[in-house]
Each structure stands twice: as C-alpha cells, then as structure tokens.
C-alpha cells in the first residue's frame, strides 16, 4: 500500500496527540470540518476506524493507537529536521521526573544549568507516572527502570541504591549495633521489596510480606522526613541525602549499600535527539554525575 496523503496524515497526527478535533484544527489553522474530512478520507483508505466518536470526547481505536505512535514520531522528526538552527535562542526545556530525584538531587543543580543557558527557560515537573510524550508538553523525563522504553532514547545516569538511615537518637534508643537489630525496630515502608534485598545481602532472613503493620509513605522524601522526625528507619539513597548525613541529622549505621538492578535514565523521543536544548541538558547531567560519583 502506498503512503496516504500527507494532509490526511498531518490531521491524524494532530488529532491523535490532542485527542480533540477542535484543538487539532486550531493548531493546523483549519476548520474542524476540514480536519474531520481528512480523518474520514484516511479511514476510508485504510478500511478501518481510527477514532471512536463520543458525545463530548473521542478515543482511539486499537488500530488508531497502533498507527498513532509511529506517525507522531515521524512528524516529530520532521519538525526537528526542519526547525531553524536558532530555534533554541529562546525556548523552554520541560523536565519531568520523580519527586525524590527532583527534590534531593536535581533541583539544587538546575540553577547552575539555567545560568549556563540564560536564553533557555527551564521548567521542572514531578510525577511518579510515566510521561506520554505524544500528549504531554514535556521535553525530557528522568525515570527509574531498566532503560527499555520502546520509541525512546535512554541515557543511563546512575544506579538506584539504598541503605538504612535514621536519627542518632533512635539508633541510641534501640541500641543499634548490627543489622539484626533492625528487625526489632520500626521500619518505614517495611513492605518495600528493597528491604528484603538489603536484609538478605546483610545475611538476615526477611519475609516478603512483613507480618507487622507499619508506616507506608509514597516517596523517599516523605520517608526521609518521617525518619528525621524519629518515627523509624528509612531505606534511602545516600547520594540524595548527603546534607542530612553530613550534618548528623541522619546517620547511615552500616556501610552496605544495595542495588535492585534498576537505574535512573534520561529519556526522550528518538526524533528529539538532535534538539540543542536536550543535547545541552544531557551533557550537563552527565558532567554533574561524573563530578558526583555517589
């Protein structure tokens, strides 16, 4: 089958990104009726429906979703290819990442990056959800995982590492001397499977589902605050809490630091790999990590 008309593909790509005929029409400078006509031509050519029309919204069919991602990526690459060389003269780099990495490591460094790139507006957003680059106004993301995200370029940044931390007062109160003493102490988010990894590497038996109730918090930042308040032992990344360790507000009682096979990665659509702002940010991150080995 030959490639469908570019006008129809252009309309499909815009509707697929926005999931809205109205917003697609505004972006393309067309009427909504003209966009609907192009979609209908494409559906007739393919012999399948691409969208489900509902009263106040639309949704992609299974076939529409199958065609949407490569089409969006292709237009993203075209936009990148034909953008002006000075397109980054005044632009925005929108970064999405998980709250702990943002608050404990990245945000203190973004000011330095902004000073190095005064013409680049930088916006930081935090979320535990994976970014859908086709529908969200996000330039790059930093996520934890194994680096395998189809359609995305992924650059390894650092390993996910963790070790128990607590206040000196709590350690003294429970006479913490060796890892086995942790088993009788309040552990924050005791059901976290990483506790099992750390405990077993320390030579201890630790059930996959701890029998006693405990405090469960949504992020490492919240766990660190609870630990600072003396409510228990948190499993934290030493790199992210160096200030607390340096000031003695938290202590790392044992030298063992464990990994779970996951890492933090800088990710973005493959079509954006030559975007100047992303190249600058990638180089900045790698330089910062090289000078901060953990």
From TrEMBL:
<dbReference type="InterPro" id="IPR058163">
    <property type="entry name" value="LysR-type_TF_proteobact-type"/>
</dbReference>
<dbReference type="GO" id="GO:0006351">
    <property type="term" value="P:DNA-templated transcription"/>
</dbReference>
<dbReference type="InterPro" id="IPR000847">
    <property type="entry name" value="LysR_HTH_N"/>
</dbReference>
<dbReference type="Pfam" id="PF00126">
    <property type="entry name" value="HTH_1"/>
</dbReference>
<feature type="domain" description="HTH lysR-type">
    <location>
        <begin position="4"/>
        <end position="61"/>
    </location>
</feature>
<comment type="similarity">
    <text>Belongs to the LysR transcriptional regulatory family.</text>
</comment>
<keyword id="KW-0804">Transcription</keyword>
<dbReference type="InterPro" id="IPR036388">
    <property type="entry name" value="WH-like_DNA-bd_sf"/>
</dbReference>
<dbReference type="GO" id="GO:0043565">
    <property type="term" value="F:sequence-specific DNA binding"/>
</dbReference>
<dbReference type="InterPro" id="IPR005119">
    <property type="entry name" value="LysR_subst-bd"/>
</dbReference>
<keyword id="KW-0805">Transcription regulation</keyword>
<dbReference type="Pfam" id="PF03466">
    <property type="entry name" value="LysR_substrate"/>
</dbReference>
<dbReference type="InterPro" id="IPR036390">
    <property type="entry name" value="WH_DNA-bd_sf"/>
</dbReference>
<protein>
    <submittedName>
        <fullName>LysR family transcriptional regulator</fullName>
    </submittedName>
</protein>
<keyword id="KW-0238">DNA-binding</keyword>
<dbReference type="GO" id="GO:0003700">
    <property type="term" value="F:DNA-binding transcription factor activity"/>
</dbReference>
